[in-house]
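Lay summary. Proteins are chains of building blocks that fold into shapes, and those shapes determine what they do. In this project we predict the shape from the chain. Here is one chain we studied, written as its sequence of building blocks.
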Amino acid sequence: MTDVYLNERFVGSVTNGKSYVNTLRDERRKGVLPLEMNCFYDQEYDIVYVDTTKGRARRPLIVAENGKSKLTEKHIDELKSGTIKWEKLVKEGIIEYLDASEEENAYIALEEEELTKEHTHLEISPISILGLTTSLIPYANYGGSSRLIRGSKIQKQSLGLYATNYLLRMDTDVNVLLYAQNPITKTFMHDIYGWDKYPAGQNVTIAIMSYEGYNMEDSIVLNKSSVQRGLARSIYFKPFNAEELRYQGGLVDEVCIPDKEVKGYRSEKDYRLLEEDGIVSTNTKVGQDDVLIGKVSPPRFLGEFEEFNIATNVKRESSVALTHGDSGVIDAVILTENEEGNRLVQLRLRQSRIPEVGDKFASRHGQKGVISILVPAEDLPFTASGIVPDLIFSPHGIPSRMTISHLIEVIAGKAGALSGRSIDATTFDAMPEKEIRKVLESLGFRDNGTETVYSGIDGRELKTKIYVGNMYYLRLKHMVANKLHARATGKIQLLTRQPIEGRAQGGGLRVGEMEKDCFVAHGTSLLLKERFDSDRTIVRICENCGMFGVYDSFKNKEYCTKCGANVKISSIEVSYAFKLLLDELKSLCVYPKLILGRKY
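And here is the predicted shape, written in a compact code that computers can read:
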């Protein structure tokens, strides 16, 4: 007998699991059983699973019987004319939805020509293998799977117009690309998705060549003149807010210009930009350490016994100020109340972001790189027709990664730009390469996309023909301005006395074993003193028992708590983390004895 489970609950047994599952499917296709039901026969364990639960991912497939698709040309014509709808095909059992478990019992053909009597289903289109973002990649069937995954992830990081009402919103970490464009080379998904409403990139002229070694590895060379004309410019928005909180005893925070008597008062220079209400006005230029919202809070830890103490009744400063390295223009100021009825002040800081060395760019094929140099247009190579590329891409990024789709997009974009139309590059159903070649040839260009190029420095013709064309490039949200981080001395942790972590807090930079090797290789091994000096401390050791000694600064005497004063006590330099370890060992009743050696 075969056990049957409905929604993971045992409901009974049947004599033949396979025929039972087939009967369930037939009844579902007839409309007797609900269309949401899926069933699966596990041959290995001889169990039938029937599922009607919510939240399962299900996908549509065309039912195939005896090597023939149930969806006929008549159905397709009726769908196009609008006489029948999708729901009717589902109800009639021509198309059915399968979940992950039922797919195990299905044998699916990609194309109708491949159908045999063993096949149970036919894919509606081979592109349904791909998800939404992956199907936006042009000529995806000419690229490897790992690059497609990377391409889909990269598109999610690109800057564009994420919402048309971005000026009315207070979102965190927002980037908006100025002058965003529609791609010349696009897939059918661009029209379904409505890409023209939310574009996320720009069409650039690209040359695939090396340039003075500046585009080694994954770096790219950008045309400085194109950047000055507005290429890849974006705006970064950052919100700040302050709330007038209520405390016990009827005390509240107050948004105002803090008084000099307030505990933690900054300098007058920091408050210079505040208006009478204690808030910076719109379109004010602000820099690091400038106060945006002045705020004072009641004193902390109010208790009965402290009421007579004058110091505790002093209000404390709790203003919102810009952190180290931040600057920009105040874009908007909003005064409102939150759900608790407390007054709320919201500001939005605007920063103009112009592409600089270290900013990240990528094509839709997973070919990402950072700007290594911005070169003036007059120094860049130019074609016979006087075209100067916006971007120079290294040819070494192609062979090992095998992103042939990247190369095809270059000539497809070129053909589209010259003929004034967009090129359909839908996966498995794109404009063929032969047609692109014909278009280029008819326009008086070489059919392989290469051109004669002249050096911008000395004007001589380059010996090699260079692959030049147009493609859609994305500017990614990873910018140097957000990641730049350096520190000398600063805050340290209370327990280990080592520098705190994190760029926002002004923390230290961790030097690991590999970084240490880099310092040594660069001949800057003296910098390693910083690595071991971060928590350097001097401890006194009793040479008799090997435990910590004590130094009494008042009497200027050294002694050991165990052996007394008549023993030799030496000072040694150790990491504070090591001293902490010894203390923890002592708490476990382990005796860490330090035996000192002499330096002669």
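What the prediction tells us: Residues 404-419 form the longest helix (16 residues).
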